[in-house]
Amino acid sequence: MSIAINQSRLRLYLPALPIVALAFLPVVVLVVLASGEPLSFGARNWRIFGNTVALTALTVGGAVLIGVPLAFATTCLRFRGAGVALAALAAPLAVPSYIGAFAYFAATGRGGELESILGFAPPEVRGLFGTAWVMTLYTFPFVLLSVRASLRRLDAGLVEAARTMGLSPLGAFLHVILPRIRGGLAAGALLVALYTLSDFATPAILGLDTFTRAIYVEYNAFGLSQAAWFSLQLLGLVAVILFFESRVRTARERPGRTLRWTPSLAFASGLWSAVGLIWLSAVGLPLALFLLWLRREGVSGFDLATLRHSVVPAALAAVFAVLCALPLARAASAGRIGRWMLRLTSFGFGIPGIVMGTVLVYVGLRLPFIYQTTAMLVVGYVLRFLPLATGSLREGLDRIEDNMTHAARSLGASPGEAFRRVSLPLIFPAALSGAALVFLEAMRELPLTLLLRPTGSETLTTRLWQVYEAGYFGEAALPGLLLILASSLAMLLFLRSERLLGLVAESEA
Amino acid sequence: MNRRKSLQLLAAAGLMGPAAVLRAATDASVATVDDLPLISGPLTLYLGRGEGGLYEDILDAIRKRNPGLDLKVRRGPSSALANTIVAESGAGVSRADVFWAIDSGSIGRVVGDAKVRQLPSAIRNLLKTDFRFDAWAPISGRIRTVPFNTERLTREAVPKSIMALPERDLEVGWAPAYGAFQSFVTAMRLLNGEEATKAWLRAMRPKARSYAGEFGVVMAVSRGEIDLGLANHYYTLRLKKGRPAAPLDLAFTRNDAGCLLNTSGAVLLSDRPQAGLFVQHLLTREVQSYLSREAFEIPLVAGIQSPVGLPAISDIHPPAVDLEKLANLRPTLDLLRETGVL
């Protein structure tokens, strides 16, 4: 009996194996590349390491400082328009952070757009603190949403009991509330850290030497071993974050009444101004800037082919990601080995785009038939965004695999038939949302696209990058707005498809 | 009236001989676009980050004239594309037909380390005699200059030697991340040696303010934020075109890296006839005078007028530097990082 089960499991594991191997390939290539020449850990390396860690720490700190109070305010306070406030605070997720960086780059400092509007030049946003500020603006919603999820699970009765028994408000916070939101807080903070580590364009535009920027510089000098060496160091940092992330437990508690207070009018208006200020800084500024440019310069500089070059590879990536995710998700539902396989492939999401791009250029030069083709770009997207598709599919599969397929099997259907006639129709919605997620993420991806795109096909993101490099900001308007649109759709799906380490699912359920 | 006045000023300062103004006459020997056959077929161009829209305008004009041409362009920083070509060549992969780069350092890297085609003599002979090379075609010239603020400084206060600049009590603007600046430092390394260059960078760093690009440097000079800057000549000329009254003028050092004459250039990477024909298009009277008139770049085929506002090259004394040697950028970057400039 047990042998029979193992065989049937094996049948599920085998198709997933080549995909796991492919997903793990980048790490192998990096090790090979980095061992190409003796590597030193000089002063420059320390500086880059320091910058990367400092940026991540500042961003996480900033996101916690902004995210936690606002999570309390939007969960526990009763005030008019709380839903609007929450939407405004989640909206920065819909703006890729490099768009924000681009907007701040163009708007602040001497000769910036704001100088011509305000009459004086606001200080230039750049360097460590400028980059941390911009990164914070676009990542604090991760903390906000995850802490909200914990707060909503918190039973107000516990807090009231603690207060009745003589704990001060601070004591109640420290001893009752904090232990219960710690998990959510950690999950959100780690997500912020992961995002900050892998972001390429934001530090690059704002002039901070982080690992991603250094990898791009080395790649441009075709110092591939040096680029690989930096990449491995960056992956080390990512691995640390992923390790902590796997240890985070969010306590499951019996649901109760949510904590609720009614704030004073003065407090509520203070809160509203904070929300407004954050929305203006993160979303209002880029939107206003792009609309201003659109009005000033029109759409004449925009080539419709750019949109096509963004959409076609992203759509292909979506289809192939789901096709690859299917055997993986089935394997993961089958047992422990399968879950390990899934974890290995999910490492791809942790590999920053710039690293994945460098690896695939190296691979491509050895396989000239695929070098600089759309196929290569699609492979890159699939490897990077596969976990988004497997995540969606797994949820679909978990819901059905056990009971219904067993029923089908006991009624005489073969495993294939059970899958085709029972599972597949049921997981179709999950597959669709997984595909959409991959599609939209691929649309807004920059560094990988920059390195792998076929010659002559500029995408929305590479066009934006070029405009930044050439300094003809006006032409960024339409690509920028289209990217914000695509990202908004991605965010809505994100929140709906109950992904994101499961934390949004619990907060909005 | 203002442009005229600045021309007179330049002439009065002895910087511009009348020859530069008279050189307007066209030369019958320069090819015009109409002399060339149409280009047809596929062509892949690696285009080093150009001067924004100006190079795009040239590509559009070439596309328009040659409807049979299927032109694919890969854009990026010149040095990045040069390294891509070298890596592709090393792996036996060939993708680009033509490489058009904005600095000769990148060209030198490709000529030195990748498989390139010899330049047909028909193309070579289009160029002025000083600019004929076996494996690449210079397209346009640019010269390192010292733009200075005329309200804060007289021309005499600008040192004639770039090496003397650290001794003066002047506020300087530069753009260390910009390729042309790095080529300038490379030239200094070649002319004065590593140690002197390192000492110069160290001494300059406390006096210098960094800008993202050299147009930013020139704007800062015109606003009086700094006394003088280090920049390619055309940024000043472009700014003066828009704002002729700006208190800004050009000074030149003599016979050192401070007045390096650098060029953009093109390399043939395949035997396709359309590749050579494309480069020939870049050396026609139309494209060359467009580059001179609109981008204020120095034309390199005989008989095209130099950009307005620039003294004749014969009155400037650029150093003798092997342009292809400017490709050795890594020691320069190391030096810039070591001294904390970059």
Summarize the structure.
The complex is a heterodimer of chains A (509) and B (342). With 509 residues, chain A is mostly helical.
Task: Report on this structure.
The complex is a heterodimer of chains A (509) and B (342). Chain A is 78% helix and 0% strand. Chain A has 509 residues and is an all-alpha fold. Chain A folds into two domains: 8-28 and 304-457, Orthogonal Bundle (MetI-like fold), CATH 1.10.3720.10; 39-299, MetI-like fold (Orthogonal Bundle), CATH 1.10.3720.10. The longest helix of chain A is centred in the last third of the chain and has 37 residues, at 374-410. Chain A starts with a helix and ends with a helix. Mean pLDDT of chain A is 84; it is low at 498-509. Chain B has helices at 2-12, 18-22, 53-65, 78-90, 104-113, 121-124, 179-192, 194-204, 214-223, 233-242, 273-282, 285-294, 330-338, and strands at 41-48, 69-76, 98-101, 137-149, 172-174, 208-210, 228-229, 231-232, 248-251, 261-268, 298-299. Chain B folds into two domains: 2-19 and 142-260 and 330-338, Periplasmic binding protein-like II (D-Maltodextrin-Binding Protein, domain 2); 23-141 and 263-311, D-Maltodextrin-Binding Protein, domain 2. By secondary structure, chain B is α/β, with parallel strands linked by helices. In chain B, the strands form two sheets. In chain B, strands 1, 2, 3, 4, 8, 9, 10 and 11 form an eight-stranded mixed sheet that branches. A three-stranded parallel sheet of chain B has the order 6-5-7, covered by helices on one side. Chain B has 13 helices and eleven strands. In chain B, 38% of the residues lie in helices and 17% in strands. Mean pLDDT of chain B is 85; it is low at 1-28. At the A-B interface, helix 20 of A face strand 2, helix 4, helix 9 and helix 13 of B.
